[in-house]
């Protein structure tokens, strides 16, 4: 409060606003959506390596029966951290990386609606993830599964699940802020002429994802608070002895958790909806159907949560209703797949690496989608739930779908972001090894599940007859790891090659390819006037009466490209210290709840001071 | 989040960053901050929705007392609820003063709103304390757990609102608000009204609809 | 492109070869041994068939398109710019909806069929999941023990049922009050029925039935803490005659050994801390936190079916240090001397 009243009318903020936009330290204060996108991507990839290593430990443990490599306690922590990491610290932030970097470029904006809030989201995500990982050194990692079912999660004597609840609250704040920020950006900051139905499908999926986040995160927030309070301050939400109802947690969790599945997969759907038309050299077949089916998936996604709970005894009425709603959600999903297929039809398909990953995404997702349909068949789900069949299903969706799609996006937009392509040879090697390894790992899990192998067991006896397929699966996991090494090698090797600065390496369709690679700070020297869906394509090619393409005269396309002397006089927000300071208060709040309350006080003060500094910060100095 | 919106509502970058094109209109014509505030409040609806659902799930299921009927003082809480509702009126008056650029009255009404809010929160603190002394703790039963957490979450929201109101007054005194201060006042007003409306629902669900204790 | 086709063919061949040499699994959902599991399998298999057909069709068309319309070197073909076809798209919205509607008909019928009330002559058993073992209580009037104060026949980790008779299980979760927690478990014996979660403060129900005598293995399917993996159990289905004999035996008090090592073990058991948690009908041991041991030696397995009741070495290993065998076990290590362990093993093995 004092800080407000002592300000003289002409004074600046509490701290000098940093000016540097280059150099190492600029990364800590940047508010440029492109730099923040890169930060998200790099961080998510590091977590991907960590979560993948956890997966390798799991597969090594299960590679033979009665294995004693990991104790039950260690295994429970590792499988829990694998799930938390891959969902909250890899796929969500990796999607955020793409959204952050690309949405402003694809809608013709100079930045997101709230650049400093954007930086805050990133730092809160990073600190939240680090907070959860610090549990390994502070009494043990979360060990109750990413789904954290109460009362197991509230009664476990180790501190892990408190880290889980507090940590996910922090990353939840990050995601909520990011969701509102990006949703406003899409709704409000489109270039002139960029009407809603000229938005690239990727941006549409981005908008749907942000809205899903905005409406599902508050529900899990309440659940996590209840879990944390039960553990730390003695409330009774899930206390069975006082009459608590364990199913409350499951309802809150899956009301968030199922939309979350679409939060994880829709970004990849958006990515491949961009890649397939470019490499088939045809417009996306049925743009509006694809968009509306994405919206429909988002809506219906809120009405299927109890299909995670068929065996909890909800009764035949609820099981029937949720079985049917689950089947219904397959319809818009199928529409998307058929539209992608129709886009390939009669195309001129160039099998560059991004296209391989896009086709891989479609083909692998079909498998996951179909096994999902078998879950809507409730009585057979009584058998399949909590078995490896479900693990197979969810990995075909989230690895075969989301991760393949995200890698496709990396190969596709890499030249835009870094001004050079990734190597094609290594890229294709990466794809084929990953495809093989992925199917070897997760394909056999269908069989294992049907043969009665349950999830989350740290070991199994030889007498169950599960050894062989587990060995196949573990072999596949190491092939996936090999493919990731190939990718890293590709990044390292290609980064030594000279930059080519190709603005439009793939003959792209959307307006992010109009600006230079990498784009200037201000994205576009002149905000393009948008006239059509796939505006950039229509600047390069015209269609004659029979639908054939005719190249437009050269020169017209490059009209909006950045010029050497462009960019002067474009006002961009200055970097700021406050986002990282405000975010730094959040883990302190978390440690305070878990250990000493004075830390929480310190964290609260830090957040408050940072917000005042933030509010009083002049836009530039 | 809400604090963050203060500055974006200000004149310096309320309309985005498209300075090259002069005064830039947003695609919808709504200021970014207002859109963000609406989205934030929509999101908050689900937060309170989940909390109220939890309360309703456990309503009347406590195995042991004190039960709501043992501790509630409906007239007392009705008065403090009225105080909070009245603060919505003073908030409207503050906005109208701000729109007229009547800065003195704007500050007066903002302060009044904050004071009414503080009265409400003070009343809640008193209520919590007296319930506590009557034997209702967080851990006593499901009623204690759900009651304190639901009303506590609301109380924290009111407190954040008070902080923002006082900050507005402070910034206005320090001449840190734009010449036309109505935008930030309107934004904080949106939040304030939302918190008031949520209280009407909570008051009705928690206090007014009678809960049969297991004995009845 | 030919390379890709070879890849796919190779993979398929490999998969078939693998499938051929996979051994028999003992918890196989596709080898049902009773009507309820069979009903679930009979629903799953055709639906899976439909899924495989759709899979082959979709993947086949994708691969065909990719092959047929691939870019050929030197070719400079501009493909026709087809933006969509509303009629076609409505068609492939409706088609999957129709297929799914067809699939949903038997699904819904089966949901309701499996949720039906049990016949009046069904065997009623209450199942209580605890960390990390199963307690079975036979609640029917003709299944009460012959003890002074009769109670239901109670077993642990082994459910004995007669063949050809519907068993109606009431499933819940409980707590022994020895530091364990009432958490969610899930009862599962794949060859006889699907899963039913065991939830504290809830009573769920499930039907199961076995056609022929045999041991049907099962385990807890919902993650329930440290030793979730070692919360196995089994159904031992016997002929109705054998079941009558078994239940008659179970109703009897335990036989108190009169001499030898078993008698020493009896004294050790009764004078030690064992009685605080374990009950043995007809003796002073009336504990209820741990498994009832009255007819311990009539069962096949213990400790979440990790160990063999008939193997003295297994029993000794357990008594030596339970937590070393099963992480987190709520039976503490009492650091028993070897002679006491041997005596206890002899006594436990006498509890037929």
Structure description:
The complex is a heterotrimer of chains A (621), B (216) and C (352). With 621 residues, chain A is mostly helical. Chain A contains 19 helices and 2 strands. A two-stranded antiparallel ribbon of chain A has the order 1-2. In chain A, a hairpin with a 5-residue loop joins β1 and β2. The longest helix of chain A is centred in the N-terminal third of the chain and has 36 residues, at 72-107. Chain A is globular and about 75 Å long. With 216 residues, chain B is mainly α. In chain B, α2 runs antiparallel to α6 and α6 (142-173) runs antiparallel to α7 (182-208). The N and C termini of chain B lie far apart (45 Å). Chain C is an alpha+beta fold. Chain C contains 9 helices and 12 strands. Chain C has helices at residues 2-21, 35-68, 86-114, 240-251, 260-271, 274-277, 312-320, 322-325, 338-350; strands at residues 123-130, 133-138, 153-156, 158-162, 167-173, 185-189, 193-198, 204-208, 214-219, 232-238, 301-302, 307-308. A 5-stranded mixed beta sheet of chain C has the order 3-2-1-5-8. In chain C, β1 and β2 (133-138) form a beta hairpin. In chain C, α2 (35-68) packs antiparallel against α3, α5 (260-271) packs across α9 (338-350) and α7 (312-320) crosses α9. The relative contact order of chain C is 0.11. The mean pLDDT of chain C is 91.
Which class best fits the helix and strand makeup of chain B? mainly alpha
Overall morphology of chain A: globular
Q: Report the β-strand fraction of chain A as a percent range.
A: under 5%
Specify the structural class of chain A: mainly alpha
Major β-sheet annotation of chain B: none
Q: Report the span from N to C terminus of chain B.
A: 45 Å
In short:
Chain A has 621 residues and is mainly α. Chain A is built from 19 helices and two strands.
Write the layout of secondary structure elements.
The complex is a heterotrimer of chains A (621), B (216) and C (352).
Chain A (H helix, E strand, L loop, with lengths): L1 H4 L20 H4 L3 H29 L10 H36 L7 H20 L17 H4 L4 H29 L12 H32 L13 H35 L6 H14 L15 H29 L8 H24 L1 H7 L3 H31 L5 H27 L16 H30 L38 H6 E3 L5 E3 L26 H17 L2 H20 L5
Antiparallel strand pairs in A: 1-2
Chain B lengths: L1 H8 L22 H27 L9 H4 L2 H26 L3 H31 L8 H32 L8 H27 L8
Helix pairs in contact in B: 1-2, 1-7, 2-6, 2-7, 4-5, 4-7, 5-6, 6-7
Chain C lengths: L1 H20 L13 H34 L17 H29 L8 E8 L2 E6 L14 E4 L1 E5 L4 E7 L11 E5 L3 E6 L5 E5 L5 E6 L12 E7 L1 H12 L8 H12 L2 H4 L23 E2 L4 E2 L3 H9 L1 H4 L12 H13 L2
Parallel strand pairs in C: 1-5, 4-10
Antiparallel strand pairs in C: 1-2, 2-3, 5-8, 6-7, 9-10, 11-12
Helix pairs in contact in C: 2-3, 5-9, 7-9
